[in-house]
Structures are given as structure tokens and as C-alpha cells.
């Protein structure tokens, strides 16, 4: 288990898994923009993401599956 879900019981995890919808994004595609109301939880199975925050869009972090840093 990942830390985010460490207190979730098996029934909770099973219910979340049933709601998962696979999505694919191409390199450079914007997944969500700062200031937009998010209604999803993104779980990275493969690949990497880069996070940009602020008016200048400077990179502030990223991630890989398993919580690795990019």
C-alpha cells in the first residue's frame, strides 16, 4: 500500500478500484491546470509527470509510479 491509502480498509480500496478509469496522455499534454476545481484523483501507472505552479509556470516537482521523483 502507498501512504495515501494506509488507513483505508480493504472494502474502501475495492470500491475505489471499481471506479478507476484508465486514461492515456501524450508528452506535454496538460492534465489539470492550477486554479481549476479538480474532481479526479490521478494515479500514475507508467510514465512521469511534471508539476508547474505559479504565474511563470516554473517546474516545482514531478513524479513517477511508486512515488519516485522525476
Structure in words:
This protein has 70 residues and is α+β, with helices and mostly antiparallel strands. Helices cover 14% and strands 16% of the residues. It contains one helix and two strands; from the N terminus they run H-E-E. The chain has one helix at 10-19; strands spanning 49-53, 58-63. It has a two-stranded antiparallel sheet with strand order 1-2. A hairpin with a 4-residue loop joins strand 1 and strand 2.
Descriptors for this entry?
70 residues; alpha+beta; two-stranded antiparallel sheet; 1 helix; 14% helix
Describe the secondary structure blueprint for this structure.
Blueprint: H1 10-19, E1 49-53, E2 58-63
Antiparallel strand pairs: 1-2
Amino acid at each position: 500500500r502507498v501512504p495515501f491509502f494506509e488507513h483505508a480498509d480493504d472494502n474502501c480500496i475495492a470500491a475505489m478500484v471499481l471506479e478507476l478509469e484508465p486514461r492515456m496522455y501524450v508528452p506535454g499534454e496538460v492534465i489539470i491546470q492550477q486554479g481549476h476545481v479538480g474532481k479526479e484523483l490521478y494515479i500514475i501507472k507508467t510514465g512521469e509527470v511534471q508539476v508547474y505552479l505559479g504565474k511563470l509556470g516554473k517546474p516545482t516537482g514531478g513524479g513517477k509510479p511508486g512515488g519516485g521523483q522525476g
